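Reproducibility note. Readers wishing to regenerate the assembly model reported in the main text can use the exact inputs given here. Chain order matters: entities are listed in the order in which they were concatenated for prediction.
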Amino acid sequence: MFLFQQPSVWFLLLVLLVPLLWWRWSRGSQRAFIPCSTTRVMSKLPRSWVVRTRWIIPALRTIALVALIVCIARPLRADQQTRVHADAVAIEMVVDRSGSMQALDFVRNGQNVTRLEAVKAVVEDFVLGVDEMEGRENDLVGLITFASFPDSNCPMTFDHGHLSERLSGIRVASEEEGAMTAIGDGLALAVSRLTSLQDRADIRTDDEIKSRVIILLTDGEETAGDITALKAAEMAAAFDIKIYTIGAGTNGTVPVLTRDALGRQTVQRMETKLDEATLQEIASMTGGQYFRATDTESLQSIYKRINELETTEIIERQYEQFADMSVDSVRFGGFTFPPLLIIPLLALLLEVLLSSTRYRRLP
Amino acid sequence: MIPAELLKKIRRIELRTSRTVNDVLAGQYHSAFKGRGMEFEEVRQYQIGDDVRTIDWNVSARTGEPFVKVFREERELTVMLLVDLSGSQDFGTQRQLKRELVAEIGATLAVSAIRNNDKVGLICFTDRIELFVPPRKGPRHVLRVIRELLALEPEGRGTDLAVALEYLNRIQKRKCTAFMISDFIDTGFESAMQIARRKHDLIAVDVRDRFEESIPRMGLIEVRDNETGRTMLLDTGSRAAREAYRTLAAQDEHELETWMNRYRIDRLTLRTGEPFVETLSRFFKRREARMER
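Running the prediction on these inputs yields the following structure tokens for the assembly.
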């Protein structure tokens, strides 16, 4: 699409002056001539090709003039660009990696896997997208794990590839690290990460963060930490952060993959206990929801559900990029056109060249 | 009033032509243009040394003293200068306009004639008669002629030789020597010229410029015909055009030459920027030789 820059377009009116200039140029009385005794002989001469093509000089000048006027009027080429723009949701995944996440009560592809493995797979699908879940492409996602101590595995980022890399590196905390469950500390860290987003330079201000969400996944009750889970939930509520809580695993005794003193992997039966009441309260305090996942399918459906709950509105914004055709080369219909200013330049150059060589006129 | 500059110019041209006439052309003019013959002037007493054949016997018998007849060469010659002042004369590429050359030639001829005690008349013409100065004698008259040649501003631009020749035939009943100083850029003057030639001693002085014979290479030029005002664009950058021009000009020249020869009109071609005295002197000698025959 071609258009002219608004106020400059009036310069096009200058084109109307061209016939006036033509008139002036062609006015015989104003021109100089070589007086000559008689043109009787000359008029019998054959007209050479230079004489026949003498219009080329004024033609070139006119072309240059008109093209210059057009350039002054600033022709623009508008390139429409549509960019999908979505308001981002900041999602902090808070994943439990306490000892009990070693429990083998999830089935994936017909095999018993630990809770953590199942969770890792589902979270990855949630972030990157699978089947009808489209992923959280436009959202900031961060990862925090916790056992006895919270750990910021991945800062809030749009780089979800990096996030999934970090995700796959998560191991269940060993006894030495402290394999207890500090839900409150994990939540508090997540809140702190979410609230400090504004200060981060790499978060574009035009991508307004619509809402901030924590997805807490745990399989037990709070056994460690300086801050209680409810206290952290209060903080989250104060900052208007929603917390979705997921309780994973079955209550009661479950087979747990452990290493004995010699490093061998053995399966032991262990008692796990899920503090559903606290999780529910956390959710309700912050306007979130509590889900219970007892197997892989339910876990998947929970993430699907959260995905739906946290849909972001997709706004299409149209951008028009203007190229100034007089100085920028323009692509149109598969051809790249050089800047328009080339035309008057070349025409003038040619005119000067011709009129000072073969088309040189005396007087 | 004559402006001082013009006076100076007249003076200069008069001086120069006087010198030319005295030194170079001395006597040549006289010999070239003889009168109609011998005329009886008077009888006077015989003096020792007189040719006895000239003794008038009748008078001697009546008076008883010897008397001789004295004859005088008839030199009641009238020179008419027919000067073309048309637009085509306001042109010259060789440091001189044709008009200036015309004035110099006219002045030289007038001074020569006056020296020989001939009458000099002037007809200036373009496409009409611009000025007629009746033939008269005397050094004051020659200055008048020179002044007119230099300063006359013609009203017409074109050339009509026939008008000038017919005018000459009308006003000059007696035979005269007529110099037609022109560039002969005209047509249809042939019959008038034939009539004039029968009546008078007509000499065509053709004033030319090099440019009229061949154009130098100077690219495109816009030329304007001084007489008709017609303009045209001429490509002198083309060799073919230059050649064609030269050929056509030579052809025109040849036609004129042939015609003049056929009707036995003396023709003298002078070019701007070239000394004309030499040519004039040669022309006078040639004429003298022919007259003695």
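We highlight two features of this model. The CA atoms of residues 183 and 207 of chain B lie 5 Å apart. Chain B has ten helices and ten strands.
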